Amino acid sequence: MIEEKVSKLNSYFEEQIAICGRRNKELLDDERTDEANFEKVKGNVYDIFRTILSVAVKTSQGDSNAVQHFFVQKAQQIPSSWVTSYDKAKQHNDVVKMQIEQIKLDAIGEIKEKFAKIWEGAE
Amino acid sequence: MTEAEAIRLFKCLSDKSRLQILKSLAIEDMYVERLAERLGITAPTVSFHLKKLADAGAVTSYKSQYYMMYSLKKDIFETSILKILQEESDEAEVQAQRDAEYRQKVIDTFFEYGKLKSIPTQRKKERIVLEVIAQAFEYDRIYTEREANIIIADFHDDFCTIRRDMVGEQLLDRDTNGYWRVKQ
User: Which pTM does this prediction carry?
Assistant: First the structure.
């Protein structure tokens, strides 16, 4: 059961990373370097959480609740510095930084939603 | 236009989205959402590009009713590329520019929104950081130690080290009455 959920999540991460890689290449080919970089940033977030999932599985020894607890905790902890950074940037009207942080926050929002759906068996 | 300004502008223009934003603004002044709709990119992405264009001196903004309108800085685009190429680059000026760029890079690395993130370990970099902090002190005014500490604490919590180093770097001087900024 847990293997199936982990496999679904891994497929999801791999798919998202591949999409971001494709978009990055397309945008680079289209001479849109900064937007290509946004895709890279987004892809990195998926990659980070794919690694976190594998660490969660390794350290939890097949305990589904422990995997969930570990993953959800990291999904709250890690973006907290992104939120701080976004708020600080907003305070100083630094739209360049705001955009980068927003992309990371949007990606983690999607990841959390997907994780909850798969882990609760809705998918 | 200096070489550094030209490079910054050309770098900024070498992006299709930004070029399309400029093309739109060449037709008429526009606000972010309008540009986003025209170009099929999100409003935050348009704001991102506009900020880069504004920093490169290519666009300017003004408030109109509820909207922030953006317009092309036409004088920049009226400069011919040949004129930029023909501009002589004086070696001393180039060196001064390099120094200014290095200084700015150090400032950007160690300061975030006016706060010092950490005290540089390299003396050359620390000197630059201390010079920035020294600007918060007025000339011809004597500050008590407490006043000096409060000013420095606005930049970093370790005001003792910074105050001592500023004296060591002869940016501040002191006697029994207090501290003052040294004229360079």
Answer: 0.73
